[in-house]
Amino acid sequence: MKDILGEIVEKKKAIVAEAKRKMPLAEVKARMQPGTFRMSKVFKKDAWNLIAECKLQSPAKGRLNQTHTVEQLAAIYAANGASMLSVHTDPHFLGCNEDFCKVRELVELPLLRKDFVIDDYQLYEARMLGADAVLLIARILSPEQLKEYLYTAWSLGMDALVEVHDEVDMAAALTTPAEFIGINNRNLKTFTTSIEQTLQLLPYADKERVLISESGVLCADDARVLREAGCDGILVGEGLVRAGDIGAMTNALADIDAGNDRKMMA
């Protein structure tokens, strides 16, 4: 079976090497300003949060949205209740650093740089681009790297979303002091998705952490199930960009309590 994650990580090595050649780490550090942990502030303010993802393509499903640019998606999300945005910078998702910078200029919301971090250079680069948070995937990092990169992100004023997929990943994440743990509902080898992955893994999680379910959320009912199960938020890409009315779907996922209120009034 094709290992999509393995292919992405292998190609990422060359991408990072080229980035270092174009802009050495010393120059990246000179260009960046420290962050202010904006993701933490957002999640402490509200009990439920939607991280809306600007995502144009999936390695498994191809082009997901032909009608909107990354900036247009960001503007719609920001206007319809998203707490935070996730912006891909990996080419497998048609992402790039330039798109991230455009969104940074466009919206005031905290931004997660969605990429496959395999080198601490990428953390400094993320902060230079204006990221408020980075993604650390437990599956592709050693336990030592996971802790090191978490502390590095914190030293730059950025939050880190530590992504897990199974019990082994969860155990690795829980050996760190990570505040945010994201349960990826997407099989990292086949890229198929189901929110059942989160529901099965939640019993192994530390409920004192902020728990976020990632991918596979296709409607407000999915979001409600995840919240009732103990999640503090969701990260949604495909479920938004493929919606018939992206703004309405964003609003529905961001404000699931309002949906419950409307049902009670009906």
Characterization of this structure:
Helix content is about 45%, strand content about 15%. It is of the alpha/beta class and about 270 residues long. The protein has one domain (about 5-265): TIM Barrel (Alpha-Beta Barrel). The strands form two sheets. Strands 1-4-5-6-7-8-9-10 form an eight-stranded parallel beta barrel, surrounded by eight helices. Strands 2-3 form a two-stranded antiparallel ribbon. Helix 2 packs parallel to helix 6 and helix 4 crosses helix 12 (about 245-255). The radius of gyration is 17 Å and the shape is globular. The N and C termini lie far apart (about 50 Å). Mean pLDDT is about 90; it is low at about 260-265.
In terms of topology, how is this protein built?
Blueprint: H1 4-22, H2 25-31, H3 38-45, E1 49-54, E2 57-58, E3 62-63, H4 70-79, E4 84-88, H5 97-106, E5 111-114, H6 121-129, E6 133-137, H7 143-155, E7 159-164, H8 167-174, E8 180-184, H9 196-201, E9 210-214, H10 220-229, E10 233-236, H11 238-241, H12 246-254, H13 256-265
Parallel strand pairs: 1-4, 1-10, 4-5, 5-6, 6-7, 7-8, 8-9, 9-10
Antiparallel strand pairs: 2-3
Helix pairs in contact: 2-6, 4-5, 4-12
Domain Indole-3-glycerol phosphate synthase: 6-252
Family: Belongs to the TrpC family.
GO molecular function: indole-3-glycerol-phosphate synthase activity; phosphoribosylanthranilate isomerase activity
